[in-house]
Specification:
- There is one protein chain.
- This protein is about 70% helix and about 10% strand.
- The protein is an alpha+beta fold.
- It has a domain at about 195-349: 2-Layer Sandwich (Heat Shock Protein 90), CATH 3.30.565.
- A five-stranded mixed sheet has the order 1-3-4-6-5, with helices on one face. It has a two-stranded antiparallel ribbon with strand order 2-7.
Length: about 350
C-alpha cells in the first residue's frame, strides 16, 4: 500500500496499478493475520495458565490462611489456658500467703501478749522481791544495827572516866553504826519507797524530786494534781519508777540546772512529763541495750501506755509518758487516800 501510494503521488500510475494488481499485499496481510492469531492464541494460553496458577495459588493461600488461623486459634487457646492456670495458681498462692500471714500475725500477737504478760509478771515479781528485801533489811538488819547501837551506847555510859582512847573507839563505832543505819534506810527507800506505800504517788514523787534537787542543787518546778488519784499500786509504781530513773539519768549525765516534773490527770489517762535543761544527747547515740530507758519503756508499754523521749545536744531532755487508766481507776481521790503535810514541799521556781 505504501508503494502504490508513493507511485500514485509521483504520477506513475502504471507502476502503481502493477503493484496493486499483485497479491503481495494479500500475502503480507495473511502473514500478519496469522502472526496476530498465533499471538492471540499464545496470549490466550498464557492467560489460561495464569488463571489456573492464580486459582491454584488462591487455593493454597486459603488453605495456608486456614491452617495458620487454626494454629493461631490453638495457640491462643493454649496461651489463655496457661494464663488461666497461672492466674489460678497465683490466686491460690496469694490465698496461701494470706493464710500464712494471718497465722504469723496471730502468732506475733500471741507472742507479744505473752511477752507483755511476762514483762508485767517480771516487774511485779521484781517489785515484790524488792518489797520483801526492804522488809527484811528493815526488820532484821535494822533491828541488829539498832540493838548494837544501844549496846555500844550503854557500854560507853558505863565507862565513866576510863581512858580516852576507848571512848574514842566507842564514839567511832557509834558513828559507823549510824552510817550503817543510814545506808540501810537508803537501800530500803531505793528498793521500795515507804512514802509511796504509806502516802501515795504524789507525796512520794514530790519527796523524790526535792531530795534529788537538794543533792544536785537543781531549781525544780513540780506540777502535780491537788488530790491523790484513785489508781492501782502497779500504776503508781510504774510512774514513780519512771520519775526515779529520769532523775537518776539527769543526775549522771545531764549537768542540768533546772528540772520540771508535771503530772496531769484526765478522764481516761495520766500524763507524766520530766524536762531538764542539761547538755542533751542524740537519740541515735543511745545504746540499744541501755537498761534504764528500756526499763522505763517496758514498764509503760506493758500497761498499754506510750513512752517518748526527745533530746538534742544543748537542748536538754524531755520524757513523756501517757498511761491509760484501768477500768477501776479514775482521777479522783481514792477512798483511803493518805495526805501528808506538805510544809516542806513548796516548788522551787
Amino acid at each position: 500500500m505504501e508503494i502504490v501510494y508513493r507511485h500514485a503521488t509521483q504520477g506513475e500510475m502504471e507502476k502503481a496499478m502493477e503493484v496493486f494488481n499483485t497479491d503481495i499485499g494479500r500475502k503480507k496481510m495473511v502473514e500478519l493475520r496469522n502472526e496476530v492469531e498465533e499471538l492471540l492464541d499464545h496470549n490466550h494460553d498464557r492467560a489460561s495458565r495464569l488463571r489456573q496458577e492464580a486459582v491454584r495459588v488462591s487455593k493454597y493461600s486459603r488453605v495456608s490462611v486456614a491452617a495458620v488461623t487454626g494454629v493461631n486459634i490453638i495457640l491462643l487457646v493454649f496461651v489463655f489456658r496457661r494464663l488461666g492456670d497461672s492466674w489460678r495458681e497465683k490466686e491460690q498462692e496469694a490465698d496461701r500467703l494470706k493464710t500464712q500471714q494471718e497465722w504469723l500475725d496471730a502468732q506475733i500477737r500471741e507472742r507479744t501478749a505473752q511477752l507483755e504478760d511476762l514483762s508485767i509478771h517480771l516487774q511485779d515479781v521484781l517489785e515484790a522481791e524488792k518489797t520483801r528485801l526492804a522488809r527484811e533489811l528493815h526488820d532484821e538488819l535494822g533491828a541488829i544495827l539498832t540493838a548494837a547501837k544501844m549496846d555500844v551506847a550503854w557500854v560507853r555510859r558505863r565507862l565513866g572516866k576510863n581512858p580516852v582512847e576507848m571512848d574514842e573507839k566507842l564514839e567511832r563505832t557509834l558513828k559507823n553504826i549510824d552510817q550503817g543505819i543510814l545506808v540501810k534506810r537508803r537501800l530500803i527507800e531505793d528498793l521500795r519507797p515507804s512514802t509511796l506505800s504509806s502516802f501515795g504517788l504524789l507525796v512520794a514523787t514530790r519527796e523524790l524530786v526535792e531530795d534529788s534537787a537538794t543533792r544536785n542543787e537543781w531549781k525544780v518546778e513540780i506540777d502535780l494534781p491537788d488530790a491523790e488519784p484513785n489508781i492501782g499500786a502497779d500504776t503508781a509504781t510504774a510512774l514513780y519508777r519512771v520519775v526515779q530513773e529520769s532523775l537518776n539519768n539527769a543526775t549522771k549525765y545531764a549537768q542540768a540546772k533546772n528540772v520540771r516534773v508535771r503530772l496531769e490527770c484526765s478522764d481516761d489517762e495520766l500524763k507524766l512529763e520530766i524536762v531538764d535543761d542539761g547538755v542533751g544527747f542524740q537519740l541515735r547515740d543511745v545504746r540499744p541495750k541501755a537498761l534504764g530507758l528500756v526499763g522505763m519503756r517496758q514498764r509503760v508499754q506493758a500497761r498499754g501506755g506510750s513512752f517518748r523521749i526527745s533530746s538534742n545536744p544543748g537542748e536538754g531532755c524531755r520524757v513523756r509518758v501517757m498511761l491509760p487508766l484501768k477500768r477501776n481507776e479514775e482521777c479522783v481521790p481514792g477512798p483511803e487516800s493518805n495526805a501528808m503535810p506538805e510544809a516542806n514541799a513548796t516548788p522551787l521556781a
